[in-house]
């Protein structure tokens, strides 16, 4: 029982760290100027993106490519310009978005 509690605590701590890290990396690249977690700004809310793509095969790579190449027409007519974000940071952001 004691080990199970430690495991649960460790999982909670790692999820908390991942969420905090994802938010920091998104802020670093100014993603939050156009997106918010729970409401639309210019682009869709991260919760909307997560609901649309979470659990779908290949969604992480699809979203990474859309961020890298830019995107238009998936959430409206305002284009998201291509972003220059390294793969490691981009993966952190996309995983954080999908976890919303």
User: Any idea what the radius of gyration is?
Assistant: 15 Å
The helix fraction, in percent, is: 55-70%
Overall mean pLDDT stands at 85
Query: Oligomer, anyone?
Result: single chain
Keywords summarizing the entry:
globular, mainly alpha, Cytochrome Bc1 Complex, Chain D, domain 2, electron transport
What is the fold's blueprint, element by element?
Elements: H1 2-28, H2 46-53, H3 59-69, H4 87-98
Helix pairs in contact: 1-4, 3-4
Describe the protein.
With 100 residues, this protein is mostly helical. Helices cover 58% and strands 0% of the residues. The protein has one domain (2-98): Cytochrome c-like domain (Cytochrome Bc1 Complex, Chain D, domain 2), CATH 1.10.760.10. The protein has helices at 2-28, 46-53, 59-69, 87-98. Helix 1 packs across helix 4 (87-98) and helix 3 (59-69) packs across helix 4 (87-98). The longest helix is centred in the first third of the chain and has 27 residues, at 2-28. It is globular and about 30 Å long. It starts with a helix and ends with a helix. 19% of the residues are buried. The model is unreliable at 4-17 (pLDDT under 50). Keywords: Electron transport, Heme, Iron, Metal-binding, Signal, Transport. It comes from Chitiniphilus shinanonensis. InterPro entries: Cyt_c-like_dom, Cyt_c-like_dom_sf, Cyt_c_ID.
